[in-house]
Specification:
InterPro entries: NAD(P)-bd_dom (IPR016040), NAD(P)-bd_dom_sf (IPR036291). With 222 residues, the protein is an alpha/beta fold. The protein has a single domain, classed as Rossmann fold. Helix content is 36%, strand content 20%. It has seven helices and nine strands. Strand 1, helix 1 and strand 2 form a beta-alpha-beta unit. The chain is globular. The protein starts with 6 loop residues before the first strand and ends with a helix.
Amino acid sequence: MSEDNLKTALVFGATGLIGGFVAELLEQDDRYKEVILFTRKPISTKAGKTRQITFNPADIQAITHHVKGDHLFCCIGTTIKKAGSKEIFFETDHNLVIEIAKAAASNYVQSFGLVSSIGASPKSGNFYLRTKGQVEESLKRLTFPNLNILRPSMLLGIRHEYRMMEEWGKTVAKLISPLLSGRLKKYRPVHAATVAEAMIISAFSGNGIHILESDQIENIRK
């Protein structure tokens, strides 16, 4: 790829499990000339083409002029327990994501990738999945030539913080994974690094809205 065709990548949520892998892969990807991580506080990164911009989640307007590039990868996500309430969770997983997306759309970012969740639906009776579904619907109304929504199932990988129930769930998921076939295949656990790789691949997938379930996330690499 010629110098003129090299891309600039923007990453939100680089301190998370998937976001960390996205940042690492982008740094190594020769198709990108620059990788910009938007973080709430400075984080340690290897020297290279990656740089950081710190921001206040409550004031996205202050960094709108920095949200310029070719491909944006949004890996922001928390849990209701960690957030402390449904209201705070919604503020992060819905409102913050949409504000970032609006800033990106206003600067003509070509590709927007989002980590959502298996089962996401605006009609879900589960608050977490309903919030994810509402975010997806809002993003579809924005003007991104290429919109990629990834819906991973249980994530495999080592988190910085320990989540006891999640670790127990991973163990169970690994045991029953061979039994999940056909329409149930999308519920198999998937490694966070695989999701990160699929996000980057899908950024080059062409115009349109692309929704990838866990099994499709695995297959996109093949």
